[in-house]
Amino acid sequence: QVQLAESGGGLVQAGGSLRLSCAASGRTSSTYAMGWFRQAPGKEREFVTSIRRDGGSTSYADSVKGRFTISRDNAKSTVYLLMNSLKPEDTAIYYCAAADIFTARRGEYDYWGQGTQVTVSS
């Protein structure tokens, strides 16, 4: 079992920056792939970005390319999401997720954090 604890959410003005953190505990060897999803009011949860354990093979949704950067520190069992040039449409609950290598092969995730609110004002 893996537990994910998110932090760093809050209120920020449009054009500003924010960095989210997600610390994994438990069976951290099962965090082969880690990613971020978000869900805005009245909308479905959507994929934001993901990263493999070796730091390569990053992937980004078109809506955040060039603005968001995902990274991870395996020694600290933590993944980060640096969000620059934030827009009001980025407002959502952001969820951290993790998958072992077998689940990742299917493009799915095993574990989810509780979510952290990001609000971007105009």
Relevant terms:
1 helix, 122 residues, mainly beta, 7-stranded mixed β-sheet, 4-stranded antiparallel β-sheet, 4% helix
Tell me about this structure:
- 4% of the residues lie in helices and 52% in strands.
- The protein has one helix and eleven strands, in the order βββββββββαββ.
- It has one helix at residues 101-105, and strands at 2-7, 10-13, 18-26, 33-39, 46-52, 59-60, 68-73, 78-83, 92-99, 111-112, 116-121.
- Strands 2, 4, 5, 6, 9, 10 and 11 form a seven-stranded mixed beta sheet that branches. A four-stranded antiparallel beta sheet has the order 1-3-8-7, with no helix packed on it.
- A hairpin with a 6-residue loop joins strand 4 and strand 5 (46-52).
- The mean pLDDT is 96.
Detail the topology: elements first, then pairings.
Elements: E1 2-7, E2 10-13, E3 18-26, E4 33-39, E5 46-52, E6 59-60, E7 68-73, E8 78-83, E9 92-99, H1 101-105, E10 111-112, E11 116-121
What average pLDDT do the residues reach?
96
Helix % is under 10%
- N- and C-termini, Cα separation: 40 Å
| Pattern of helices and strands | EEEEEEEEEHEE
Brief rundown of the structure:
It is built from one helix and eleven strands; from the N terminus they run E-E-E-E-E-E-E-E-E-H-E-E. It has one helix spanning 101-105; strands spanning 2-7, 10-13, 18-26, 33-39, 46-52, 59-60, 68-73, 78-83, 92-99, 111-112, 116-121.
